[in-house]
Specification:
Blueprint (H helix, E strand, L loop, with lengths): L4 E4 L31 H29 L2 H13 L2 E4 L14 H5 L4 E4 L25 H10 L1 E6 L17 H15 L4 E5 L14 H18 L7 E4 L18 H20 L9 E4 L7 H6 L8 E6 L4 H4 L16 H14 L7 E6 L8 H17 L4 E3 L15 E2 L4 E2 L2 H11 L5
Parallel strand pairs: 3-4, 3-10, 4-5, 5-6, 6-7, 7-8, 8-9, 9-10
Antiparallel strand pairs: 1-2, 11-12
Helix pairs in contact: 1-10, 6-7, 10-11, 11-12
Length: 444
């Protein structure tokens, strides 16, 4: 039984945005290239992006001028129209354990608004079940997942760090209590009818991308995904596997700029091992949606163009895009932005043109599995405008987005939280409402 909730659908102001790294980790602008020589196709692609961005900005200015004419006399009518235009959102629904033989594009088209359960099962630094609360977030409850789902988030990403919970080589046996807890949380969400993404998250301490380590890294990657895939092989298509979270070399000059060509090749190798390993376990895993990613989850031209997507109709691409960085993430830089005034409209258009031309037009769906904007002196009205602009444009392209929520709002740290997990209320309800409305534009 579907529980539909209704929220007012505001008349969308069509703005836009752009791209960068992830998990609350970013350092430099992802538009900066890492290699001096760029392929001819990259140059052409960039020109296309710039042209479309310029046209969109010009159109936006024209629209703004037209809208301002007679705005006073129409404002009251407009407000009444907004109130009279509710939109149904997905709430708690019946669980589905069916594994349908549908394409990745078809499956992803069913996803709407996404949310990350960050800094919880992905916390590291200790072993055992206490790791779940080690970074300060409360233990996950079914009520927490219900709250997220009832708001209209029908998709959830559950980041999971495994390395504190595995044995020695060559088996890398996962602690059964940890695996059981992961499965319990996955079922909380599946029981609400949600789509669920699980991954291998903060694994950089062993997932080292160089010639010296790559064979051992690949072996552990295979061992982990063999065990995870075996545990979940009978689950339906609402469960999705995301092989690698932001695979990168920590502390390197190119860590957040798409990596080097050699590092990107190593990521391609790990992506392929992940896919081959999961498929080999059989059962529903033969048709399960699997997500591969770029170096660092980056959406730079170099990273996107060098990604090798396995020839498999049940494959999608996971990208991270905190864009524009100066608005969503930057703190203390001279270029930092606090207001969303439309001056960076072209950035999101460049991002979406790149992802669309490289993947979507070739039948490969894209999920932006991390995005969001930090709380900067309670600038939530500005973030709501940005969210509407970003999410609505991505939704038009068929790209679902997953807000990075790490539980941090007014504490020290990267303030991405939108949900108060202690009280099960929303810190930034106007931002959340903007996200939900924009995510459901494809339904109207």
């Amino acid at each position: 039984m579907i529980k539909n909730k209704f929220i007012p659908m505001a008349l969308a102001t069509v703005l836009s945005v752009g791209m960068i790294a992830g998990c609350g980790n970013a350092g430099t602008d992802a538009n900066v290239g890492t290699e001096q020589e760029v392929q001819t196709e990259t140059v052409a692609e960039t020109a296309t992006e710039n042209n479309e961005a310029k046209e969109a900005e010009t159109g936006s200015e024209a629209t703004s001028t037209e809208a301002s004419s007679g705005a006073d006399e129409k404002s009251e009518a407009s407000e009444e129209t907004e109130e009279a235009a509710p939109v149904a959102v997905n709430g708690i629904r019946e669980r589905s354990d069916e594994m349908r033989d549908i394409s990745a594009m078809e499956l992803v088209s069913e996803m709407t608004a996404g949310w990350n359960l960050g800094n919880t099962l992905d916390a590291h630094g200790t072993s055992g079940l206490e790791a779940e609360t080690y970074w300060g977030n409360p233990k996950i409850t079914k009520e927490l997942i219900d709250t997220v789902c009832e708001k209209g988030f029908d998709s959830i990403r559950i980041p999971i760090t495994w390395y504190d919970h595995v044995g020695d080589a060559p088996d890398y046996a996962i602690d059964p209590e940890w695996m059981d807890r992961v499965e319990e949380v996955v079922n909380y969400a599946l029981d609400d009818g949600m789509f669920v993404l699980i991954d291998t998250h903060h694994e950089e301490s062993w997932r080292i991308l160089d010639a010296e380590h790559i064979d051992a890294v690949d072996a552990e990657n295979i061992a982990l995904w063999t065990q995870i895939a075996e545990r979940f092989k009978d689950y339906g298509d609402h469960l999705v596997f995301e092989g690698l979270n932001e695979p990168r070399t920590k502390g390197s000059a190119a860590e957040w700029n798409g990596g080097t060509s050699e590092e990107r090749d190593y990521v391609n190798r790990l992506n392929k091992s992940f896919v081959d390993t999961v498929r080999a376990t059989g059962g529903n895993n033969e048709k399960r949606l699997l997500l591969v990613t770029t170096y660092g989850g980056s959406n730079t031209v170099e990273a996107v163009n060098q990604l090798e997507v396995p020839d498999d109709e049940h494959i999608g691409v996971a990208i991270h895009a905190y864009e524009p960085y100066d608005f969503t993430f930057a703190s203390g830089q001279s270029t930092e932005l606090f207001r969303w005034d439309g001056s960076h409209n072209g950035d999101i258009i460049k991002l979406l043109v790149r992802l669309n031309s490289k993947f979507i037009e070739n039948g490969i769906p894209v999920l932006i599995t991390e995005y969001g904007a930090v709380n900067k002196n309670e600038n939530n009205d500005e973030i709501a405008k940005w969210a509407e602009a970003y999410v609505s444009r991505a939704t038009e392209k068929g790209i679902p987005l997953f807000w990075w929520d790490n539980g941090v709002y007014d504490q020290e740290g990267e303030k991405f939280a939108i949900l108060d997990r202690q009280n099960l209320t929303w810190y930034r309800e106007n931002v959340v409402d903007a996200v939900i409305k924009a995510s459901y534009t494809k339904e109207n």
